[in-house]
Amino acid sequence: MSLARTGSAFSAAFISLFIGYTTTAAAVDCPIKVADSSLLTPGEAVVSINPVSPPMQYVDPKSGELKGMRVEVGDAILERLCLKQKKIRVDDFGTMIPGLQAGRWDMINTGVFFTDARIKIIYMVRYENQAIAVSTRPGDASKFKTVEDLAGKTIGVDIGGYEENKLKQLDQELQAKGLPAIKIAIFNDTNIDYQALKAGQVDANFTIEAVAKEYADRGISQVALKGLYPSPVALAFRNKDFAQAVADTLTKMKADGSYQAIFDKYGKSIWDGPFDVKGPGI
Predict the structure, then answer these.
(1) What is the reported pTM?
(2) CA atoms within 13 A of residue 133's CA, in its CB half-sphere
(3) pLDDT: which is higher, 30 or 153
(4) pLDDT tens-digit profile of 217-268?
(5) Which of 110, 131, 148, 136 is nearest to 234 (CA)?
(6) Boundaries of each Solute-binding protein family 3/N-terminal domain copy (predicted)?
């Protein structure tokens, strides 16, 4: 395996304020449903987001506003909890969980894959199903009929996430079979991944299915493989009680149909299990 890292290095210095306060409800009309002790700032949720994965979370190029399915889900939850919201843009996904642990934010809303390793250190609430896909330039999909066809190729992937870990795992498995190493190109931004693909700097990208479909729909790429390493996606928290309040809210949203309506709007797959909290000591 060879690694090439593009973009910024792993550092908290790449955390930047994206949006300040968004008032979700007036205190008189909507009593706050989360204890002050469960939040960094009473009555306010500090939410980190990595908005580089359309249509799930991204910055609208025309309005400059945050948009996407995960943004809508998060906004709906916090509005029901009567919390103000302070969104923090985090340009390096690899800093998001350490930032949560360090108390820089209360919640991560950027599609964190649920893993046994992560629930040992943070609290998570599953709410979405997702998997990984392989994207190629239009017309090249036939070159990648199985994951073994990634051997010896240059494959782009986002830094610090589930996709990077699974691509490295796959590379080790292929090498164990005697196949050439994958040349892994690590990027700090999904948009840059696809620019590199378009420019011929990588042979394919290893991204979540929702993003792969979005870029294919735009005519930028073609989906060659999908359904790889399926896993739930979760919201992540530093505080168990806040996580439980969110889980309870999602349960109510599912019962009244609003949760399903958001997913239907984007054509995405809901989490069909219970909205429960998993994390340290649970």
Answers:
(1) 0.86
(2) 18
(3) 153
(4) 999 999 999 999 999 999 999 999 999 999 999 999 999 999 999 999 999 9
(5) 110
(6) 44-270
Within 10 angstroms of residue 260's Cβ, the number of other Cβ atoms is 12
Tokens 């893993």, residue located: 115
**CB–CB of 133/229 below 8 Å?**
no
Cβ contacts of 25 within 8 Å, gap of 6 or more: 79, 82
Beta bridge partners of 34: none
Average pLDDT over residues 166-190: 96
Q: How far apart are the first and last CA of the chain?
A: 37
Instruction: Report the distance separating Cα 242 and Cα 45, nearest Å.
Output: 9
The two structure tokens encoding residue 209: 């299915």
Exposure of 14 by Cβ count < 10 A (0-12 exposed, 13-18 middle, 19+ buried)?
A: middle
Contacts of 138 (CB under 8 A, 6+ apart): 219, 220, 221, 222
Specify the 3-state DSSP secondary structure of 246. Answer: helix
8-32 average pLDDT score:
49
> Which element (helix H / strand E) includes 196?
helix 190-198
Q: Set out the domains of the chain in order of their start, with CATH numbers.
A: 15-130+232-271 (3.40.190.10), 131-230 (3.40.190.10)
